[in-house]
Amino acid sequence: MLSKIPIKEDLSTMSKEQVNSEILRAAIIAELDAVNLYEQLAAMTPDKNIKKILLDVAKEEKTHVGEFQALLLNRDKEQVEELKAGKEEVKEETGEE
Q: How far apart are CA 28 and CA 15, in angstroms?
């Protein structure tokens, strides 16, 4: 689990735009980490109410991922293009969209 921002570069050498992209990527990582944690905990508990709340919170975290990703895609056009390329590769390899 994350307890420290996973940015290895010296932020002082980056542009403000690059720093903001790194911040958004770290936020996405944190949210995905939370989704994984809550879903794993939900799978472990026999208590249906705890399970229900954990899965509900995990779903909210997925919304947060979408919010941060939307911001990132507005700022990083290379990321937009690479996501498109990745989608095309999946379609070519699997036929899935």
A: 20
- Is pTM, for the whole model, over 0.70? yes
Task: Give the angle 59-62-90 at the CA atoms, nearest 5°.
Answer: 120
How far apart (Å, rounded) are the C-alpha atoms in residues 69 and 80?
10
Q: Using the structure block, give the residue that is written with the tokens 């705890």.
A: 50
Confidence of residue 5 (pLDDT cuts 50, 70, 90): confident
- At 50-78, the pLDDT tens digits run 999 999 999 999 999 999 999 999 999 99
**CA separation for the pair 90, 31 (Å, rounded):** 24
Handedness of CA 43, 49, 52, 58 (dihedral sign): negative
Calpha distance 54→96 (Å, rounded) = 30
Q: Can you say how many angstroms the Cα of residue 18 is from the centroid of all Cα atoms in its chain?
A: 17
